[in-house]
Amino acid sequence: MYEKDGESYFIVDGHVHIWDGRASNHKNVHGKQFIDCFYDYHRNLSPEDVIWDYDTYTYYGAERFMKDLFAEGYVDHAIFQATLLSDFYHNGFGQTEEAFGLARQHPEKLTYNHAYDPRNGEAGLEQLRRDAERFNLKGVKLYTAEWHGDSRGYKLDEPWSRRYLEECLELGIKNIHVHKGPTIKPLDRDAFDVADIDKVATDYLDLNFIVEHVGLPRLEDFCWIATQESNVYGGLAVAMPFIHARPRYFAQIIGELLYWIGEDRILFGSDYALWTPKWLVEKFVDFQIPEDMPEYPAITAEQKKKILGLNAASLYGLDVPRQFRLPAASGAGV
After folding, report:
1. Average pLDDT across the chain, whole number
2. Which residues pair with 289 in a beta bridge?
3. Residue 328 class from Cβ within 10 Å (0-12 exposed, 13-18 middle, 19+ buried)?
4. From the CB of residue 13, how many other CB atoms can be counted at a distance below 10 Å?
5. Per-residue model confidence (pLDDT) at position 110
6. Where do the structural domains in the chain lie, given as residue ranges?
7. pLDDT at site 333
8. Which of 174, 267, 278, 291 is found 20 to 30 A from 156 (Cα to Cα)?
9. CB 310 within 8 A of CB 11
């Protein structure tokens, strides 16, 4: 919960991780390239007083995670978004067991989303069924640019990917989070293109496609797709820190999103531990469109409440305490 100027905000951080980027977990040079690229994003887009040292950043663990999100970061509920990267890391990048263990200990605070790769064929479908039961999955996180043997990416509308999406429908996994954002070394830029979102969103209307990182640097493409497809949402992870590093650029991002897809389909995410939620929440609540950008209207407290938590709570069926609900939703779950 965050309070400012008489307003109370229910915070759902829709994009968090516990990862292990230490050298002991690197399978090859690409493991180091990936965590180093993450650290460059962290170091270059964060306020100086919240920059971590490199060793802490490569592995911080559950205790630090809980402190940064819930003790200090105002977060009421957070959603793990798995990142496996099995070709780069011996034990995977995202730490499945540690994250899921925390979610089991704190179900009121944490939801665990796992991942799959459609290039694993029938064996992967069987694994998805087992994972759905074990983790009680409501969502999955997909990395279309992830390497898999000789393959350096896949499209969501390929036949095997469609098989997995159909299985998600059967299993009741409704929230499909897809990394469609900036390139992370050594992954290929074009494998994160957003065009395949358009196709599957049209064909699978009972699934919600949350485009993480709002397609950056393809914001315009994303907006033109999402305005046509009512089951496409924008996750603000990676876009959020520009509120500090490039505030006018952030004003353009949030202004375009509000114009094209509206306040009900935008979700806050810190992408922890790329960034910590505390300063992002504080700066977003304080943020306003510059006066010399009149093409974008002022952002209201109600819009900020939806973006910071109520939209994600609706997607995941979270129980929002009555004092945080908006008047129009006072009789509903959010």
Report:
1. 96
2. none
3. exposed
4. 30
5. 98
6. 16-318
7. 41
8. 267
9. no
Q: Residue 32: exposed, middle, or buried by beta-carbon count in 10 A (0-12, 13-18, 19+)?
A: middle
DSSP bridge partners of 148: 151
What is residue 67's predicted lDDT score, i.e. its pLDDT? Answer: 98
Strand order of the β-sheet with 77-81 is 12-16, 77-81, 110-113
What are the CA-CA distances from residue 100 to residues 96, 110, 231, 280 (Å)?
6, 9, 27, 25
**Can you name the residues that pair with 240 across neighbouring β-strands?**
none
What's the confidence (pLDDT) of residue 327? 86
Q: Which parts of the chain sit beneath pLDDT 70?
A: 329-334
Please answer whether residues 128 and 116 qualify as being in contact, where contact means their C-beta atoms are separated by less than 8 angstroms. yes
- 93 near 153, Cβ under 8 Å? no
Q: What's residue 331's pLDDT?
A: 40
Task: Establish whether the linkage from the previous residue to 332 is cis, with ω within 30° of 0.
Answer: no
Helix (H) or strand (E) holding 140: strand 139-142
User: Judging by beta carbons within 10 Å of its beta carbon (0-12, 13-18, 19+), is residue 122 exposed, middle or buried?
Assistant: exposed
- pTM across the whole model: 0.96
CATH 3.40.50.1980 fits 16-318, yes or no: no
Decide: 177 and 210 in contact? Cβ < 8 Å. Answer: yes
Question: Can you give the pLDDT at residue 330?
Answer: 42
